[in-house]
Amino acid sequence: MLLHVRTTLAATLIIASIAFGIPLRPEKSHIYDENRLVPAQQVPFFNTLSEEFAKETGISVDAILLDDIGDRDARQYASDIAEKWMADIGQGGEILIFVAQKQRRKFVVTKGTASGILPDATIKKFEQETLLPDFRRERYGDGLLSFTARVVFAIADETGSTVNIDEQDLPKEEPMSIRGWIFIVAVFGLLIAVGSRGRRFGFFDNMKKLLSVSEIEKSPWPGIFRDTFGDNLVSAFLSGKCLMEGFDALASPWTVNFILKDNSPEEIAKLGAYEKRAARENLQFAHFYSPAEIVQTLDTTPLEYLHIANRNVPLCGIKPLAGFEPHPDKLAAQCRHEIDKALEQLHSDSKVPFAKALNDILPLLYGVYYLETKNYPENHGVVLKRYPAQDIAGLTKTLSGILATLNNPAVKPSVR
Fold first, then answer.
1. Do 290 and 371 share a domain, yes or no?
2. Residue 256's closest CA among 230, 281, 293, 291?
3. For the segment 248-261, what is each residue's pLDDT rounded down to a tens digit?
4. CA atoms within 13 A on the CB side of 353
5. What 3-state class would DSSP assign to 24?
6. What is the pTM of this model?
7. Residue 94 pairs with which residues in a beta bridge?
8. Is residue 115 one of the residues assigned to a domain?
9. Do residues 277 and 350 share a domain?
10. How far apart are CA 370 and CA 377, in angstroms?
11. I need a labelling partner for 268 at 20 to 30 A (CA). Which of 110, 151, 193, 234 fits?
12. Distance between start and end Cα atoms, the chain
């Protein structure tokens, strides 16, 4: 009986769709394209992006490109199609890109949860910036992909969903070489191999990452920091190991530090809304200093401030600690303390890899180099030439020699 009811209902829906002229949603695609306007190489990419986004958010992104809708009201017709297609697949939200060629109508309709996340003004802005310019040039595939990527980003930011894709890497409308087709086949093979629950758009993880200082400087982040903190912001800057040679932006995030007039928890919390986006784009918010804190700790952690003063990239605000010179005795005291800890660690853990041990100790050796020469070293090579070590034993010997020099005030640091 239940089977009979379901069969009857399905038949009724099909008949109703035909009667009222609502096209049936394609079973295996998110694009209904009567005149084949979207190039074949872009359809699979759009379908995969839509499928993954629907799994993550419950919102389906579809496109319908019709030749002629007669004298129908385009807006109402598109709205009816969006409602019907959303119900057909059982999703909570629908974003429908609608095109009627002969009537020269092109716009986007949102339904369900999609309407509550992005306001109409935002959708209209995305249409004007991505969809319509490409459509006017009859580059329908480019328009669909660029608009969908923009919407996906915006909804991901609003909902905290995980999606990483770079609009610059979307396939363009151009003839595909054999190598290009092989690349696309390999890409989708990887997507399938990873599995739907595990991938969460994982293939695109590195496409949205900021991989260079110039990309960060040209990104929206400097403006975000200014808008978030306003007059409370003194400086936002890159510093730390991310500016040292050997840093790999594919493996580690860029470290952003801040100087705020008021670094209370309430002020710092203002940046909390951007933490997930920062992680996706390869940024890590590290330390929030205040001018008062810096003044109070200049003599207790001078090595930290020495590195900040000499190796930083301001993103907005002033250059941090410009002209700072640590007190030699205070810097020597911190270096002695840090070398003591390093030697204790090396003695207690003889199996620590030499490369890791050297990498951990190099910032300390920069401080010793400054003590001896009054110059901040340009790179690791300059430091290692002065303090050579080929293995753990050699590193231990070098550190012990430096410590002996620092512990004997009668022995002035010598330039080796």
1. no
2. 281
3. 888 889 999 999 99
4. 3
5. coil
6. 0.52
7. 60, 111
8. yes
9. no
10. 7
11. 151
12. 94
